[in-house]
Amino acid sequence: MLSYLNKTSIDSVMCLSERRKLSSLGKIEGVIRKFLSQYILLGMLYVQEKNDIDNSDQFFRKILHYISKDLQSCELRTEKMRKIIGDYESYSSMRVGERYKMIKSIIKILSDEDEFSLSKALEVVSEFKTELSQLENKLFCVDFDYFRNTTKELRNDINILQSFLVCGPTHRVILVPPELHSVIREVEEHLKKQVASVKNGFRGFFEYEKVVSNKWQNYRRQLWMYFYTDPQKLYFVLQQIEEEFKKQN
């Protein structure tokens, strides 16, 4: 009986000891699970934080790149603006003759003077324009009355010649040598050309004058009329032009 109680007591003690061990193991397992869960959570947070850090790093690197590039472009623009301002200041400080070198060269050719000013340039250009207008009026005067009177005289001469050579009610020339007949034909053709050129000159002049006033077209037409009706006049005009150019040079 005593041995049975002792055995029961021992079993109870051992069972209590096992329970305590299991309880301790359970607590240890809970602590380990807690540590593991915290470790895993920290790992996940670290990975997420690392991604955020990498994204932020790339973002700020791009911002720094764009800022540097824009700053460089801004420096280039600023440098160009400073250069332009400096060029303008140096240009403003120059004398008038040094600014307008081309105009100065033209004025020197027209006046043979080294001194240059805007008032002097205006004066020289005005004088040159006046001389040019006088030369145009001298060489290209409109004298259509002269051509018209010349044509009338030629027509009267032809009428007199025709009345002298034609007898009877016919318009044909009879009993005229072939040589004289050819001369008459040439004179008639020449007269027709002169009349046609004068008419075309008048007609073209008035029609063109309605559209646009171009004195050089009139001059060219007038020279052609000189060529047809009065070659000596054309030769005289060309000589006058050549002399004027020689004077200018």
Task: Walk me through this protein's architecture.
By secondary structure, the protein is mainly α. Helices cover 88% and strands 0% of the residues. It is built from 8 helices and no strands. Helix 3 crosses helix 4. The termini are far apart.
Order of helices and strands: HHHHHHHH
Determine the number of helices (DSSP H or I, runs of at least 4 residues).
8
Radius of gyration: 58 Å
Dominant shape: rod-shaped
Bin the strand percentage.
Answer: under 5%
> How would you characterize the largest beta sheet?
none
Domains (count): 3
Derived from helix and strand composition plus strand pairing, the structural class reads mainly alpha
Q: Distance between the terminal alpha carbons, to the nearest Å?
A: 160 Å
* Chain-averaged pLDDT: 72
Number of strands: 0
Low-confidence stretches: none
- Proportion of helical residues: over 70%
Could you outline the blueprint of secondary structure elements for this entry?
Blueprint: H1 2-93, H2 96-99, H3 101-111, H4 118-139, H5 144-165, H6 178-211, H7 215-229, H8 231-248
Helix pairs in contact: 3-4, 5-6, 6-7, 7-8
List keywords for this structure.
single chain, 249 residues, mainly alpha, 3 domains, 8 helices
